[in-house]
Structures are given as C-alpha cells and as structure tokens.
Write a structure and sequence with these properties.
This protein is of the alpha/beta class. The protein contains eleven helices and twelve strands. The longest helix is centred in the middle third of the chain and has 18 residues, at 135-152. The termini are far apart. It binds alpha-L-arabinofuranose.
Length: 320
C-alpha cells in the first residue's frame, strides 16, 4: 500500500475518534488525601496501600504529607476544597479541632472519608464514613495477653512502663484506655511510668532510656502503642545491658515485619495486629459515595494477635 499524506491524516482521525472520551463517560475521580506523615513502618505500608489502590482504580490521588502536624492537615484540606476535588480523605493526626475545616468541606459539598483514625466532632454528618481499626479493642487484646502471661507465670506483681503514641491521637487515647481497662482486673499489674514516644523509633528509644534511668531493674514489662516505639525501646534495653523479651517483657501493636523479626530474635513477646492495608476499601468507598450509593458510617478492620511463638511461621505471610 502506498502511504500518502491523505492516508496518514485518515489514520490519525480514526485514532482520535477511537480514543476520544465519549460524552457519556464518567469523569475520572479525584481524591485529596492528607496523610499523617511517615512516622512508622505501619504508616509507610498504609501510604503504599492507598497510592496503589488509587492507581489500580484509575483514580487521581492528590497526596499531602502532614509531617504529624494538624495545621498542615487543615491547610491541605482547605487546598483540596479550593481545587474542587470529588472526595477528601484523611487520617487525622489528632482527634479534636476539626469542626471548622470539616464544615467548610461540607459547605463546598465535598464528602469527607476518615481513614485509620477517628475525629471527635459534635456533628457526625461532617464525614460520610470512617474506615479503620478498633483501637480500644487493640489495647484490650494487649492487656489480655499480659493477664494470661502473668497467670501462666505464677501471678507475680509486674511493673509496667507504657510508651504512648502521639498525644491527642485516637490510637494513643484508645490503646491506653483498652489496656488499662483489662489489666484493672489484676491489682498486681501496675503502670509505673507512661509517656509519649510519638509513634517513632527514635522517640521510643529516648523515652525508654529515661524510664530505665529512673526505674532501672524495677521494670518488668514494656507496653508500646506501636511496633516502631517498641523496636527503639528494645535497643535502649540492650544498651542498658538487659535482655528485651526476657528481663523485660515487650508488648506492642501493629504487626509490621520489623516486629516479627524482633519476635523471631526473641526480643519482643507479642504484637497485636493493626491492619494498614486500607487503600482498596477507601477507594471503593469514595467511588460509591460519588455514585450516590449508601456507604457504612463505620467500617472496622479484622485483626489478630501474634505471640512470639508463631512469628517464624507467620513472617513469610506478612504483607507489610
Ligand atoms: O493510627 C495508626 C497508628 O499510627 C499505628 O499504630 C502507628 O504505627 C502509626 O504511626
């Protein structure tokens, strides 16, 4: 076939017709997502899950990292409103202080979905759905494991130090509440020190060093609100010449690979799972909201408890 300029123009026109978006095709969805930060292994997995799910669904994701600062999240939400995104999603760094900005989103008719962490607002219509774990139950699971451990080990009095998550964050408040509620059943279990480690390894290590300095060998148990702080604290315990997992029982929350490795090495006794793979549910919920379908106000994630005895077997199955 002889290719003339006219044939080329004809082919170009045919391609243009075939690839043009028909007038009735749905506009691709745009979601503005404000992430807490990159403070932990859990958070990294959570971000990857959301980005990956958006990509797979052909959703445009405007991603903003708040670096653990509420003011950055408020700024990001206002910018998403100004950009007229279809849905705003965010994982709130702290529980309170959202009423004004969420009302601005509501007035702009942009639905808001909460992922991972909850907010405390007087008007629940300020968000359409909250997808995430039951943090109080996670704290209870950690507490139940300790009650059980103590029972199996002769019911000795145990002094506990607690590394709390970010002050004012839902998982820090709820995990403290759930744990305290359960261990109250045994008056021999006492929390002797409790301080924030901001969900990071560096802070977890620093605060544990301070606990060890003031309490020394008085400490029997460490309860950390996440694996990263526990891993930082394990380092502090070793540097103090003690054996984590033996001299000091270590309990934490998340179930990241780092925790499974620490359990395999005998340095961590148990991790309570908190599932970060929320991306597919978030994207599906956003699509349903925009399509006008009813969505559940609360979507709770299923999770387990992994003691050190199962770590080696479970590690190869872990997805984060
Ligand atoms: O909100 C979930 C918590 O935040 C995770 O337990 C912790 O690792 C993260 O930083």
């Amino acid at each position: 076939m002889i290719i003339t300029r006219r044939t080329l123009l004809g082919v170009a026109a045919a391609i243009a017709c075939a690839t043009a978006i028909p007038a009735f095709a749905a506009k691709p969805l745009t979601i503005g997502f404000s992430q807490v930060g990159a403070e932990s292994e859990w958070r990294t997995a959570n971000t990857a899950s959301i980005k990956d799910a958006a990509k797979k669904a052909g959703v445009t994701l405007k991603f903003a990292d708040a670096q653990q600062q509420q003011q950055n999240q408020v700024k990001a939400i206002r910018s998403f409103i100004a950009q007229h995104v279809d849905v705003i999603a965010f994982s709130p760094v702290v529980e309170t202080g959202w009423e004004t900005v969420l009302r601005e989103a509501k007035n702009a008719k942009i639905p808001v979905i909460l992922t991972d962490r909850a907010v405390k607002v007087t008007d629940p219509s300020l968000y359409v759905s909250f997808i995430g774990s039951d943090f109080v139950e996670e704290g209870r699971r950690a507490g139940r494991w300790l009650l059980d451990y103590d029972k199996k080990n002769g019911g000795k009095p145990l002094n506990i130090v607690e590394l709390q998550g970010t002050t004012g964050a839902a998982p820090a408040i709820d995990r403290k509440t759930g744990f305290a509620e359960v261990i109250a059943a045994n008056p021999k279990l006492k929390i002797i020190r409790s301080q924030t480690g901001d969900f990071t390894r560096a802070k977890g290590k620093e605060v544990m060093e301070a606990f060890l300095k003031s309490e020394g060998k008085n400490i029997n148990v460490l309860y950390a609100h996440n694996d990263d702080m526990a891993i930082g604290a394990i380092q502090a315990i070793e540097e103090a010449g003690l054996k984590p997992g033996k001299d000091i029982i270590v309990i934490s929350i998340d179930g990241v690979k780092g925790a499974f490795e620490a359990m395999k090495a005998g340095k961590l006794n148990v991790t309570v799972e908190c599932n970060p793979l929320l991306g597919p549910t978030l994207i599906q919920t956003a699509q349903d909201v925009v399509a006008g379908k009813p969505v559940p106000k609360r979507i709770v994630v299923n999770e387990g408890v992994f003691p050190a005895e199962v770590a080696a077997k479970e590690l190869p199955n872990r997805k984060y």
